[in-house]
Specification:
- It is a single chain.
- About 75% of the residues lie in helices and about 0% in strands.
- The protein has about 220 residues and is mostly helical.
- It has one domain.
- The longest helix has about 35 residues.
- The protein is globular and about 55 Å long.
- The two termini are about 20 Å apart.
């Protein structure tokens, strides 16, 4: 266990550094673009932190920092249920980007590197961290339902944000183009994907659990 805990903290530290750097650079890029078009710095921050990708990776950065500071998995930010939720969220970020969003925007320079960090590197790194260091056998079949709270609240927020600003952040939620029935249908399908991945994670957690904990 001691060796496991010694490896846990450097791994979490690496993820925390990549996450904080990626989020900070994306914020700097977006705020710069918004202010260049006449918007305020506050407008820029509201814009960048309205994306599910940025919200998820910011939470991931906080959780990874907590895991760096403590190798124990008994606090709210470091317990297996929280780490399982973050794993589901960031994997969905990577999958949706790869399937639906990659190539829709023309990026260059630093923005390309940041985009790769947020959508490709961090989902892989955090999944590997969950596989290697998070204690198994502590998740329940109810957890995927609780994990839906954050993405469900985000759906509500994104629709309100779009209605107030006339700016819809993702093409599959563009109400003026798709209409509310189709946009809400897309949201429902994505929430089903969150739930399905959550169930898959709990199943894998049970498979990988030590025999003594496999009935938890």
């Amino acid at each position: 266990m001691a060796l496991h805990e010694q490896a846990n903290r450097p791994g979490a530290a690496l993820i925390a550094v990549v996450a904080w750097l990626s989020v900070a650079l994306r914020a700097w890029i977006v705020v710069g673009a918004v202010t260049a078009e006449g918007g305020s710095v506050l407008d820029g921050f509201v814009t960048v932190f309205s994306y599910f990708t940025i919200q998820t990776n910011t939470i991931l950065a906080v959780v990874a920092t907590a895991c760096t500071l403590s190798s124990r998995h008994d606090g709210f930010l470091t317990r297996p249920r929280t780490l399982g939720a973050i794993t589901v969220y960031v994997v969905i970020v990577g999958v949706i980007y790869a399937v639906l969003l990659a190539g829709l925007r023309q990026l260059s320079g630093l923005a390309v590197i940041v985009d790769i960090g947020l959508h490709r590197v961090l989902p892989v790194l955090f999944t590997l961290y969950w596989l290697a260091f998070v204690p198994k056998g502590r998740l329940s079949w109810r957890d995927p339902l609780w994990w839906l709270v954050f993405p469900a609240l985000y759906v509500v927020y994104s629709l309100i944000y779009g209605a107030l600003t006339d700016r819809y952040l993702y093409p599959f939620s563009n109400v003026p183009l798709l209409g509310y029935p189709r946009a809400l249908g897309n949201a429902g399908l994505i929430l089903l994907a969150f739930y399905g991945l959550g169930l898959a994670l709990v199943t894998l957690d049970r498979i990988l659990a030590p025999k003594a904990r496999s009935n938890v």
